[in-house]
Amino acid sequence: MTDSRRTAAPEVAVDEAAAGFRTYEVYQRERVWEPRPPIKPRELYTPQFLDDPYPVLTALREATPCYRDWPGNAFWVTRYDDVTSVFVDEPNYVTRPRAWFAELEGIGRDRRDEIAVRACVTRVGDAAAAEVAHALCDELAAEQDGAGAADLAIGFAARYPVELWARVLGLPRQSFAWFAERLLRLRRAASWEPRTREDARTAFHELLAGLVPVVAQRRDDPGEDLVSVIATLGGDERDVVATLLEEDHDTLHGSLANLWFLLLTHPDQLGIVTEERRLVKAAWLEAMRHSTPVLIARRFTRHEVERFGRLLPDGALVVCSAAAANRDPRAFPDPDTFSITRKNLCHREARGHYRADGLCSPVSFGTGAPSKHPALPEDRPRSRFALTRDTAVTASRVLLDRLGDVRLADGATPTLRSLQWGELRTCWSLPVTFTPA
Amino acid sequence: MASSCPFHAVVDRAFGIDAAGVPAEPGARKDFPLMPVGTAVDMGHAPDGTPLFDPRIFTTLEFQRNPYPYYRILRDHHPVFHDRLSNAYYLTRYDDITAAYLDDLGFNTIPKGSSSGVLGNTQLELSGIEHRRRRNVYGRHLVGLALEKRKPYIERLANELIDAWGLDGSSGTIELARSFANEFPIRVVCQVLGIPDDGRDRFFYWYSSMMNGLGGSDTAQQGREARQDLEEYVAELVEQRRKQPTFLYDEAGAPIGKDIISELCATEIDGDVMSTEEITSNIALVVGGGGETTRGAILNMWYLLLQHPEQFAAVRADESLWDAAFHETLRHSTSIGGQPRQTTFDVTLHGVTIPAGSLVHCVDVSANHDDRIFAEPERFDIFRPDLYSGKLLRSGYAKDGRFSHMAFGVGPHLCPGAWISHQESVIGSMVLSRRLRDVRIAVEKMPKDIDDTSLAPIGLGSIRNLWLDVELV
Questions:
Q1: A193, A429, A430, A433: which to substitute to probe chain B, counting the most B Cβ within 10 Å?
Q2: Do B116 and A21 make contact, defined as CB atoms within 8 angstroms?
Q3: What is the pTM (predicted TM-score) of this model?
Q4: A311-361 per-position pLDDT tens digit
Q5: Residue B176: which of B469, B416, B391, B472 has the closest Cα?
Q6: What DSSP character marks residue A345?
Q7: How many CB atoms sit inside 10 A of residue B43's CB?
Q8: Which residue is closest to B83 within chain A, CA to CA?
Q9: Which of A170, B200, B215, B253 has the fewest other C-beta atoms within 10 Å?
Q10: Of the candidates A24, A139, A193, which has its C-beta nearest B113's C-beta?
């Protein structure tokens, strides 16, 4: 939407028609010299926002650095510099785990930061990454033989992280469908929508019940997998599920789907990657910048702070819009173009500073707080961000090798959208045809 | 596109997207299904078995046509419901709502931003003594003797409208809204206000634009323009009446009294005459309150009575039963869903704390269907023993073990037009029923329920059209 009203410089506009009848709210806003908001309050919560949030976010970013969202009771921060300033400011903002949003506190311990767990995830995950990708490619080929077009969005991108987690946990093959469905439902535990949330809670309890015998068995006879590791550490099935709840495998799903959505809808860029396999990592990073699957990161103020021309009260919810920041023309020239060979994008992981090489890093998953380990310790060689990135890159390279001449199926018009507010914005159907290699 | 991948089914079950993973079109989402009237869609349960309530249902078609089972859930399980989507609270029990209406201090009517742009500065948004003074200025023209004197005029008006159908002693099909109910109330209002005949058509346009603009939607602009036009028109009228007041006349041609605009021009509040702006706002309010709601009441009353022929026959046999029919209609299906209030300070009710300054919706519709007060509330029964249907009580809502319905509210903001609306509907319907020999709903022209055979329920608000097969006397 290139409406001039949206991009005009903020000013105290006077709506002539309503001039005589200012409501109390308008009166207060004018009294504190606050410009008329560039959007209607509910525009952040419409179905259109689920399909394409960028027009609204652009209006916010250009008109007001910190938008007071009354329906959501939050402060929206949309400019690149502002968003990154919140991410690196741990003394003033607190990040809360998903269990807090899901109101599932006290239901188990998140074990992700323990060294043994980390080592296990890295070891098993790395070993399985390429293997799982190859297995899925086989199925895609079979699917293409059967139905004429294979679906990359569900058959690969959505399935891949779940398969990987089933491997990491060492679950038996026959319980995969059971596990997959519950893991996906668990993702929505922090949803605002009561029915969805209740469904996620049910999935939570089903997972707990289902994992009881597995944990008991592994405690007696430990293996290489994560369940064994957690059992050995003295945890139970509650810890396993709590760890699963916090682990954002959905970022892997979203980033794979969005990367391939962008590559397939930009055949010239796909050509570049096919020529130069080492550019897959750059492509992934640029995809995260151009269409990030995680639109927002939530932070809460630890105390009253004055920021962005406002007084943020104690405990205020600050919604950092990664989508808006990643398309901020102040940080990335020509932000709406998807270009793998972009020269103004930092390829290093943001670890406490977002302009490592004098270039801006994309704000993808709300990561980037200053590292507790300035020098990376041996047992924690990669951050979660790097794990996700490397796994996605490995999987995409396998795809490129296995699916020769991959392109969109005839007549397909894939789109990105969130199924519900605050959820992953990604592609839910990506039919492709290819020559199996 | 059929897919052989078994993972589709998993994602489908987990996320509820349709089988192919492709939505029918961008933006198309699963909605609440239409349920049989009286049954609520399952919105999930908390672990302890309490039914959950999803605030998105408020904007659905399902809720519009079948609201009562949902309000029952709210009354029984969430008596103070916090809608986090629009950050408003809902009161749904009869006792809570009447208490809130009578507590003018705790639940005030000073808006944070609603209709003021369209209606202007009216006493809807005032409280306390200020409110009482303004309201009484014109409120007294809408009650008592002033009302009795206008009776013949209203009867004559109804007869004129029926004559205009051109169905002399023959049968035919009419649409009651277009041929009677739309115009009748607004003409009564015009007459009471003293609007000249030539202004009445324009008046009808302004009135509908303003009503459409109240929601603060895209039509608000049209509403504000209509108000602007109305204001200019009335300002001119007021200037004339200040010099030369006009009068209402009875059948014999004797003056009954001044019309309301002339009265308002001469009225002093605290030694000040009312400004033109104030008069206009009051008129806008009378127009809005007196037109749309009465229209809905007449249509709903006939729709319900004709679906209960034995009660219709009783009313025809004994015309004094029209009062009971009117009140039972308003209890069963009223055109106004409820009234907003704002909390003045933190209020804790049923264990929920409503912070100061919150928007509280008092749902009259739900109070009227509260089975703590009215037995079998979904049943339409004009002989109901628990409904008070005598002369409306200004200060109370219960008398002799009977309770009045909440369609007019109660307490200081009790609808000032309640009496005239009652009189209009009853006289209009009485005249209609005398003139019609045989009357039935033209079922084939009316909207149907989901079974495609029975008549659609009224739901919230009023029906828009009522097709009747009639035979004139």
A1: A429
A2: yes
A3: 0.63
A4: 899 999 999 999 999 999 999 999 999 999 999 898 888 776 777 778 888
A5: B469
A6: B
A7: 18
A8: A71
A9: B253
A10: A24
